[in-house]
Design goal:
The complex is a heterotrimer of chains A (451), B (748) and C (325).
Chain A: H1 7-19, E1 23-27, H2 29-48, H3 51-74, E2 78-83, E3 87-89, E4 93-102, E5 109-120, H4 123-126, E6 131-140, E7 144-153, E8 158-169, E9 176-191, E10 196-197, H5 199-213, H6 219-223, E11 225-231, H7 243-249, E12 253-258, E13 265-270, H8 280-302, E14 307-312, E15 318-323, H9 326-337, H10 347-353, H11 356-361, E16 363-368, H12 374-380, H13 386-393, E17 396-400, E18 410-411, H14 418-423, H15 428-437
Helix pairs in contact in A: 2-3, 8-9, 10-12
Chain B: H1 3-23, H2 35-49, H3 61-81, H4 86-102, H5 108-128, H6 132-163, H7 167-170, H8 186-209, E1 235-237, H9 241-245, E2 250-257, E3 273-279, E4 281-283, E5 286-288, H10 303-306, E6 310-317, E7 324-325, E8 327-328, E9 331-335, E10 344-345, E11 352-353, E12 362-369, H11 384-391, H12 395-408, H13 417-430, E13 435-436, H14 449-457, E14 459-460, H15 462-475, E15 480-487, E16 490-492, E17 497-501, E18 505-515, E19 523-528, H16 533-542, H17 551-566, H18 570-602, H19 608-611, H20 614-643, H21 660-671, H22 682-695, H23 706-718, H24 726-743
Parallel strand pairs in B: 13-14
Antiparallel strand pairs in B: 1-5, 2-6, 2-17, 3-8, 3-15, 4-5, 6-12, 7-11, 9-12, 10-11, 15-18, 16-17, 18-19
Helix pairs in contact in B: 1-2, 1-5, 1-6, 2-4, 3-4, 4-5, 5-6, 6-8, 12-15, 13-15, 14-15, 21-24, 22-23, 23-24
Chain C: H1 14-29, H2 36-47, E1 52-55, H3 62-72, E2 73-74, E3 77-81, H4 88-92, E4 93-98, E5 103-108, E6 115-119, H5 126-138, E7 140-143, E8 146-149, E9 155-160, H6 173-176, E10 181-183, H7 190-199, E11 213-214, H8 215-226, H9 232-247, E12 251-253, H10 257-273, H11 281-292, E13 297-298, H12 301-304, H13 307-320
Parallel strand pairs in C: 1-9, 1-10, 2-11, 3-6, 6-9
Antiparallel strand pairs in C: 4-5, 7-8, 12-13
Helix pairs in contact in C: 2-10, 8-10, 9-10, 10-11, 11-13
Chain lengths: 451, 748, 325
């Protein structure tokens, strides 16, 4: 945070922050009605000067005034905290843990509501609406802690910010509501939704690699080294099943291969949107393109080793690359999560920043939201010579999301959501990925793991 | 116990209380009134077992609407049957509605509606009757209502949050789920009691501080008459008073104030005679009273009475059907906050009365001179007709009584009326021939009851004594009248009021012995009381039985209820609330102005030189000291504010006898600003403290080894279950002392 | 306290135990410079009858540590370099036909030693790995139906390089469980490194180490470990930590009961190594990360590979929980 660099400013912020009244009191709907009835009672009593009505009115005023003090007491010596995952995939269940510590000696905390706002940092990416979460703590005994998990569907991709936790009590009569806001900033990155690549995509990919290698059959047995057996996991090709062992073990087993000599992959994404008159379909197409790219990245990074490059157009085109690894995947997904649509960028300028070695050797996937003429783009590019282009053309797949090119290549499990949440926090996909990580080469490559 | 069960049960109990407020005081004229709470209670149990267990047992909304209409019809019919009871039939409709509503499957709105119905019942009950019984029911209702409101709020929150998108509560969607497990525990009860106490206290304050008008009290009557007060009718059968002498119910509550408005505490034997009606005509065991006629004489202090001390009586009369008012004779002034019914003085016999017999309690005040022998101002000398009634006695009776009377006044000059009356009074009171008794055996029906008392039975109560004296006086032609009223009362030391009960009823005699002064037309009445007072007092104290032991408490409750709730008016409000506040403010103002003056004096420095003096030093030093104090206070407030949610508090180490030194270390370090977070082990903390102490550069390096030393020893005891050797302990203690000395250098 | 208090009820006297341990620690420390914590943890594993997995890049002194331990104890030491073509029988031993007698005799493999350094254990195939790990956990070896008991003390110090992927077979979580302690050597301080350089001037210093403890004494120490006193509050604290790993949502798989037991035993070991016969909360807190972090599985595969993440989670849990006092 560069803005906090100056100690004076930080101090000023701290002073303002700590002096700012962090508690608010307001009437509830019931309270307003109660108040109206009370006023009626009071006026009747005063007008008629009947002491018993005044007495009832007086006693009825007690709860209103008493609420002010008692609700403050209810909020005393409480601590709340939030635990958010640092990332989540859009459309998958999101669970946020809220915990409340009651440090009081005797009295339990009753019927407390915790509200939390998840605000999109970049509205152009995530849309205007965030997410408001509620957690209800029915009863937290004295000197104990309770945890409530909020579960919902994670919103659209992008980065979200949590700022204030608000603790709300309507104790003791539900007439007044007292809220106290506690600053607890946090951030959550919502990665784009990950789908499942269809057979058709695999077919296209194989075709592409076969054209490159000449027609060779059965890539798996020849190009990959067999080195063992493992349990079947969703997503494995049935062709890899080792039937004899499966029969013996009573569960499907697949052959495992050491993947070797796989061609590097470069994905170029063109998140183009017209400057004005953006139709919902176009937006949808853009999101589809991003989801598609995210899925490819995800699938590629399942098997470490292959080099992966992601480039995107925009006012400033960007490129990120590295050997496929968990760390790279995080970087790419984060990039995709925060990718802004642009009306300016062109593929040509992106081609200029892609390393020449990639253009020379890698298999290219170009995903766009507008029709792309690769020849024209290449001509406009300063880096790409005609010969290089010729070599390139055999190794490139151009997909236009606005024309529905992606529709057959990826499918989404739309039954997720509440149904999935019922089964527990870990989705199938995550279980699958987890299992995969145990596989032969799932270690991350990052250097953060220093002691 | 399930939360919902408790909630429902409390809710129904509250409704029952509400109906009780409505019906508790209607028992006198409506035999069935007491059935309503019972019915509500039974219906509650029924509803509790059916609808609230399973909504399918409930009424449908249509059926409920039809039933509500029918109940409305029922109330209208009731009103038609007896159209004096508008309020009552409306109240009954409320009860019917409530019963219908109980059997509906309930939403939050239904609960609110039921709550409101209960409230309206309480209000109607409060308007209809204002006795202290209503008060007790009302307070029970209020307490219950608070409890229910608390539970209701919890219930609403639970309902509200279940509809929110929360997966965790989805499984708890069933109505029977337990939202607040373990809710009812001692701390909850205690805190609820605290909330209730706060709330009621605040409510009470608000009630007391509400603006009041001067005339207060007489609310709309439901048309019913007040309690009948035997003994104060137009005519009285001899012996009738015996009924009320055995009755314990209060008649009025009296505050006695002197000229300055401070309370007068009556003596042990309170002989105040609360004069009520006078009786003049006697016929065969019956006394008749003169007609009330206002004389238009404005009561008011006259110069003549100014020199004597005044006893002011603030009287709260319970509802009665009699217009008679009571007061101490001689009455100088009488007033009532309700200007429609000002007390009036009957010219002929000096009786106070009012023009109303509404069944509400009546407030009035009477000023009396504290000398009972002074004549009553405003009372005319008896007219000839009245005078003849005052000596009227049947001839045959006169013939038989005259010898007895003459026997007693033998030797006393015929002109000495005072002597003769005194002799006759003594005869009845002190001769020992006559005994006081409330028991009445039927005597000879042919004989006049007074003659029977005088000659045969010789036992009776005050009425007989008084009648006998009156007839004896009349037999020797001394004009006199019987006075019915009250004598004495129960003084309550807590409330400092006197409660006069029916059993305090008394009869005595007033005899006319001429004029006070020749030129003054005022008649000279003397008061004669022939009843042996010791025997009477003993008799009174027997009445009431067990209950009389609690009079101190019940009277106090009644007092609070009567004077500060039902009868709370602007005048009392002023006296109770505003006058003390005003006095306090005045006092404070005076104090501050004195202080301000002297402070101004301190800061007055005529020249710069004079500032450089001892006084200048002291003043500036003092000002700085105050400044430091204020800054500290502000800092403290600020820390508290900041620390409110930091929750730095942590548990003390488990109370072990052997680890005193460890706690001492913690305390010392805490004073030094070092505290152990809960997740830090003691040793980590000790190491951190040691580094801190060593690096602080303020002479604490020498004691930097103390925290690890102490914590190691603590570990040995706490986790190693060892005991320290004496010299080790001494070493630790001495090192801790050293640390103490370092941390508090000023102490050393 | 100034004077360490020692166990009375063992075969050795309290003072003997203390001097023994000090001697052992000093001896190892004279060779493995600047790593007192690592040495302590390794000795804890030795005394608590566990095994150590050292993760670090080559050249950080992993081998040195193992050799120093072995050399300090009067017992046998073997080093196993794991390669992809290593077979289980290369470790366990095999039966050889004896032409003279006409029957098979068992020729024990390198695992029949007291201290074993299994270098780069992730380089070999899972089959070979599991042969080693089974021997580690059972303390015995089964070859062709015959069971051979391994001699005590038996300490395996396995190393692997976590920053290498090509051609490696990462130990699965279930196998990692066999190691009591997982630790990193870490880079030494500059001053320590200078000392290392200077001590190596005249050759490998570990060659000059003399054994200071006998195998029998180690066995006595191991018996003493089991007698270390554990307060109920400490047990609760330990269980708090274990349960927190199960309840939290960062972890898919929490610590098993065996993990809890291992932490318990390791804490007893650490107490003894620290010269106490009772556990203090610090023992648990110190050991939570090295003992537990390889027994948990992160929620998502994106975290699964990152041991750093698991460590951070455990540390976070430990930093949150209330310490008994």
């Amino acid at each position: 945070m560069s803005e906090d660099r100056s100690p004076l400013r930080r101090f000023a912020r701290w002073v303002v922050w700590s002096l700012w009244p962090n508690q608010r009191l307001r009437w509830t709907r019931e309270g307003v009605i109660y108040f109206c009835v009370w006023v009626g009672l009071l006026l009747t009593g005063l007008y008629q000067q009947i002491n018993l009505i005044l007495l009832v009115a007086g006693l009825a005023a007690g709860p209103m005034v008493g609420s002010i003090f008692v609700s403050a007491a209810m909020l005393r010596k409480l601590r709340i905290s939030r635990r958010v995952p640092s990332y989540v995939f859009s459309g998958t269940p999101l669970s946020i843990d809220y915990s409340l510590d009651n440090d009081r000696r005797w009295s339990a905390a009753l019927a407390l509501i915790l509200t939390d706002d998840m605000i999109p940092i970049d509205r152009a990416v995530s849309g205007p609406t965030g997410l408001t979460t509620l957690a209800f703590f029915p009863r937290v005994a004295a000197r104990s802690r309770a945890r409530v998990r909020w579960q919902g569907i994670s919103p659209r991709r992008g980065q979200y910010r949590f700022r204030m936790l608000e603790l709300v009590t309507r104790s003791p009569f539900g007439l007044l509501e007292r809220r106290v806001a506690i600053g607890d900033p946090a951030q959550l990155t919502v990665y784009p939704e990950i789908g499942q690549l269809t057979r058709r995509w695999k077919f296209i990919q194989r075709e592409a690699s076969e054209t490159r290698r000449g027609s060779r059959h059965d890539l798996s047995t020849q190009q990959q080294e067999y080195h063992g057996l493992r349990d079947y996991r969703p997503g494995d090709s049935p062709r890899w099943i080792h039937w004899r062992t499966s029969a013996r073990r009573g569960q499907p087993m697949v052959k495992e291969f050491e993947q070797q000599h796989e061609q590097d992959l470069a994905i170029l994404l063109d998140p183009w949107l017209p400057r004005t008159k953006i139709s919902p379909e176009r937006r949808e197409a853009l999101e589809d393109a991003i989801k598609f790219v995210a899925t490819i990245c995800f699938e590629t990074c399942r098997h470490p080793g292959r080099r992966l490059l992601l480039g995107w157009t925009g006012a400033v085109p960007g490129v990120r690359q590295g050997p496929a690894s968990v760390k790279l995947l995080h970087e790419l997904l984060e990039q995709l999560a925060t990718l802004r649509p642009s009306s300016e960028g062109s593929l040509a300028s992106l081609l200029d920043v892609v390393p020449p070695s990639t253009l020379r050797e890698s298999y290219l996937i170009v995903v766009s939201t507008r029709p792309i003429n690769l020849m024209e783009e290449a001509e406009r590019s300063t880096r790409l010579s005609a010969t290089a282009l010729r070599g390139l053309l055999g190794r490139v797949t151009v997909l236009d999301a606005s024309k529905g090119d992606l529709r057959d290549l990826i499918k989404f499990d739309r039954t997720n959501g509440m149904a999935k949440m019922g089964r527990g926090p870990a989705t199938d996909r995550e279980e699958a990925s987890l299992a995969l990580a145990d596989g032969p080469a799932g270690r991350p490559e990052d250097g953060e793991a220093n002691p | 116990m399930k939360f919902l069960t408790i909630y429902r049960a409390s809710f129904y109990l509250m409704l029952t209380f509400a109906t009780l407020v409505l019906s508790i005081d209607a028992t006198d004229d409506n035999r069935f009134a007491m059935l309503y709470p019972v019915v509500v209670a039974l219906a509650s149990v029924a509803a509790f077992l059916t609808v609230d267990r399973d909504p399918k047992f409930g009424l449908s909304r249509t059926a409920a609407s039809v039933l509500a209409l029918i109940s409305g019809g029922l109330s209208v019919a009731e009103y038609r049957y007896d159209n004096t009871l508008l309020l009552l039939s409306a109240a009954h409709w409320l009860v019917y509605l409530q019963l219908v509503k109980m059997f509906l499957p309930k939403t939050v709105e239904d609960d609110w509606f039921l709550f409101l119905l209960g409230l309206v019942q309480v209000l109607v009950g409060g308007v209809m009757s204002q006795s202290d019984k209503v008060g007790i029911a009302l307070f029970s209702w209020a307490l219950m209502a608070l409890w229910v409101l608390i539970l209701f709020a919890l219930h609403r929150e639970a309902l509200r949050m279940k509809v929110a998108p929360m997966a965790e509560t989805a499984r708890a969607r069933g109505d029977r789920a337990e939202p607040y497990r373990g809710l009812i525990d001692v701390p909850f009860i205690v805190s609820t009691a605290r909330v209730a106490a706060t709330t009621l206290a605040l409510g009470g304050l608000i009630f007391l501080a509400m603006p009041r008008r001067t005339s207060m009290g007489s609310s709309q009557s439901s048309g019913a008459l007040g309690r009948h007060l035997t003994g104060f009718d137009d005519e009285i059968q001899l012996g009738q008073l015996g009924e009320i002498l055995e009755n314990d119910t209060p008649v009025m509550s009296v505050e006695l104030l002197d000229n300055e408005g401070s309370r007068i505490v009556p003596g042990q034997d309170d002989e105040s005679r609360w004069r009520g009606v006078s009786m003049d005509r006697y016929e065969r065991g019956r006394w008749f009273r003169p007609k009330f006629k206002a004389n238009g004489y404005s009561l008011g202090l006259t110069d003549r009475w100014r020199e004597s001390r005044v006893v002011r009586q603030q009287i709260k009369l319970e509802p009665t059907d009699s217009p008679v008012l009571f007061g101490l004779r001689p009455i100088l002034d009488a007033d009532a906050p309700d200007k429609r019914f000002l007390p009036e003085l009957n010219e002929a016999d000096g009786t106070l009365f009012r023009n109303s017999t509404l069944a509400v309690s009546f407030d009035y005040s009477v000023d009396s001179a504290d000398r009972a022998d002074l004549p009553q101002p405003g009372e005319a000398y008896p007219s000839v007709g009245y005078l003849s009634r005052l000596v009227s006695i049947p001839d045959d009776l006169k013939a038989r009584l005259r010898p007895i009377a003459l026997d007693q006044v033998r030797g006393i000059d015929e002109g000495d009326l005072k002597g003769r009356t005194a002799a006759l009074e003594r005869y009845l009171k002190d001769s020992g021939e006559f005994r006081y008794s409330l028991e009445q055996d039927t005597g000879d029906p042919n004989l006049d009851p007074v003659e029977d008392f005088l000659i045969n039975r010789k036992t009776g109560h005050c009425e007989y004594f008084a009648s006998a004296l009156a007839l004896l006086l009349r037999s020797i032609d001394i004009p006199c009248r019987i006075i019915n009223g009250f004598k004495g009362g129960d003084y309550n030391a807590m409330a400092r009021i006197t409660t006069v009960r029916q059993k305090h009823a008394h009869s005595w005699v007033e005899a006319l012995v001429g004029r006070t002064q020749a030129q003054d037309p005022a008649p000279d009445w003397i008061t004669l009381d022939p009843t042996p007072s010791a025997e009477r007092n003993a008799s009174i104290s027997r009445v009431g039985g067990m209950a009389s032991h609690f009079y101190q408490v019940t009277d106090f409750v009644r007092f609070v209820w009567i004077f500060y709730i039902v009868g709370f008016n602007s005048e009392r409000q002023d006296r109770f609330l505003y006058a003390p506040i005003r006095a306090l403010i005045k006092e404070a103002q005076r104090g501050f102005s004195i202080m301000g003056d002297s402070i101004k004096g301190w800061f007055h420095f005529p020249s710069v030189e004079s500032f450089f003096s001892l006084r200048g030093f002291l003043v500036s030093f003092g000002a700085l000291l105050v400044l430091v104090g204020v800054i500290n206070l502000v800092a403290w407030c600020f820390r508290r504010l900041m620390g409110r949610f930091a929750g730095k508090k942590e548990n003390d180490p488990t109370g072990m006898a052997g680890v005193q030194f460890y706690r001492r270390l913690m305390q010392l370090l805490a004073e030094y600003g070092l505290e152990r977070p809960a997740a830090e082990t003691p040793r980590e903390f000790a190491r951190r403290s040691a580094i801190f102490l060593a690096g602080h550069g303020s002479g604490t390096e020498s004691v930097a080894d103390v925290p690890p030393l102490v914590v190691d020893a603590f570990y040995q005891i706490r986790f190693g279950e060892r005991t320290l050797r004496e010299d080790d302990l001494e070493h630790i203690t001495s090192r801790l002392d050293a640390l103490d000395a370092r941390i508090h250098p000023q102490k050393a | 306290m100034n004077s360490p208090l020692m166990v009375e009820a063992t075969d050795l006297g309290a003072a003997d135990l203390a001097t023994l341990l000090n001697r052992l620690l000093d001896n190892i420390g004279s060779v493995v410079l600047g790593k007192p914590e690592v040495i302590k943890l390794a000795v804890v594993a030795l005394l608590a009858e566990g095994h150590v997995l050292v993760e670090d890049v080559p050249g950080m002194g992993k081998t040195l540590l193992a050799r120093a331990i072995a050399a300090s104890i009067d017992c046998s030491f073997r080093r196993l370099q794991f390669t992809p073509d290593l077979l289980p029988s290369d470790i366990l031993g095999s039966s050889v036909y004896n032409a003279g007698t006409g029957d098979f005799i068992f020729k024990p493999g390198p695992i029949f030693a007291n201290v074993i350094l299994a270098d780069e254990v992730n380089r070999t195939t899972p089959r070979t790995q599991s042969a080693l790990l089974e021997a580690m956990s059972d303390g015995q070896v089964s070859v062709e139906g015959n069971t051979h008991i391994l001699e005590r003390p038996f300490l395996v110090i396995a190393t692997q390089n976590p920053y290498e992927f090509e051609g490696t077979y990462v130990l699965p979580e279930s196998q990692l469980d066999r190691f009591m302690i997982r630790l990193r050597m870490g880079y030494p301080l500059r001053s320590e490194e200078r000392r290392v350089l200077s001590t190596h001037r005249s050759g490998e210093p570990v060659e000059t180490l003399r054994p200071v403890v006998t195998g029998e004494e180690i066995r006595q120490l191991q018996r003493a470990v089991r007698k270390v006193r554990v307060d109920d509050a400490i047990t609760e604290y330990l269980l708090d930590i274990v349960h927190a790993t199960r309840d939290g949502d960062e972890l898919n798989v929490g610590v098993s009961t065996r993990g809890a037991l291992t932490l318990y035993r390791a804490a007893q070991g650490l107490a003894l190594v620290s010269g106490r016969d009772y556990i203090v909360p610090d023992d648990i807190k110190t050991l939570a990360v090295p003992v537990l972090s390889h027994r948990v599985v992160g929620k998502s595969f994106l975290q699964a590979g990152e041991f750093g993440a698991a460590e951070a989670i455990i540390r976070d849990i430990v930093d949150r929980l209330r310490v008994p006092s």
